[in-house]
């Protein structure tokens, strides 16, 4: 009886580890989705994703790149945003969700062109994670300011 209880405990701990890994992967896959939306996935966007992921999750640049590589594969295999959006909706608080949208705008604005597909992806995600269009607009302005100050 105790063996079964300990086995279940170990199983629950392993599931928590998988869940903990799911959030950075989903976050990164959504950044990749934003970058690929205009069908021009540049080295500058890849570098920006690596930088944002490293900062968000306390990873080294090598770890962030490895996570991006995995997220690229996951995003390419996904049919929609729902799986990724569910993970971030459940795993992030409001501030974390706002940070994700701001980071997605950072990616979208990196090439200094407003692409309708990038905007559509962000707008769709905003609804899926229960934020408002005004949140997205404010995040876009913050992202633009960050890009200006880093240039």
Write the layout of secondary structure elements.
Elements: H1 2-36, H2 43-57, H3 61-77, H4 82-91, H5 94-109, H6 116-128, H7 133-150
Biggest beta sheet summary? none
> What class, by secondary structure content?
mainly alpha
Q: What is the ordering of alpha helices and beta strands?
A: HHHHHHH
- The poorly predicted ranges are 1-18
> What's the overall average pLDDT, rounded?
87
Number of contiguous helices: 7
What would the principal axes of the Cα set say about the shape?
Answer: globular
Helix share bin: over 70%
Total strand segments: 0
C-alpha end-to-end distance:
63 Å
Radius of gyration, rounded? Answer: 17 Å
Strand fraction? under 5%
Description:
By secondary structure, this protein is mainly α. Helix content is about 80%, strand content about 0%. The chain contains seven helices and no strands. The chain has helices at about 1-35, 45-55, 60-75, 80-90, 95-110, 115-130, 135-150. The chain is globular and about 30 Å long. It starts with a helix and ends with a helix. Residues about 1-20 have low confidence and may be disordered.
Which tags fit this structure?
globular; 7 helices; 0% strand; 151 residues; mainly alpha
Short description:
It is built from 7 helices and no strands.
């Amino acid at each position: 009886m105790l063996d079964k209880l300990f086995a279940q405990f170990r199983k629950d701990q392993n599931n928590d580890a998988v869940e903990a890994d799911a959030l950075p992967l989903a976050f990164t896959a959504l950044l990749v989705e934003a970058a690929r939306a205009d069908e021009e996935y540049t080295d500058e966007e890849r570098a920006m994703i690596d930088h944002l992921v490293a900062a968000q999750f306390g990873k080294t640049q090598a770890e962030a790149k490895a996570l991006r590589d995995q997220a690229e594969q996951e995003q390419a295999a996904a049919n929609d945003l729902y799986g990724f959006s569910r993970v971030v909706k459940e795993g992030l608080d409001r501030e974390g969700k706002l940070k994700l949208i701001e980071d997605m705008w950072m990616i979208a604005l990196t090439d200094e062109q407003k692409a309708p597909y990038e905007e559509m992806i962000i707008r769709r995600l905003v609804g899926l994670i229960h934020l408002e269009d005004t949140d997205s607009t404010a995040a876009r302005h913050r992202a633009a300011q960050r890009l200006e100050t880093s240039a």
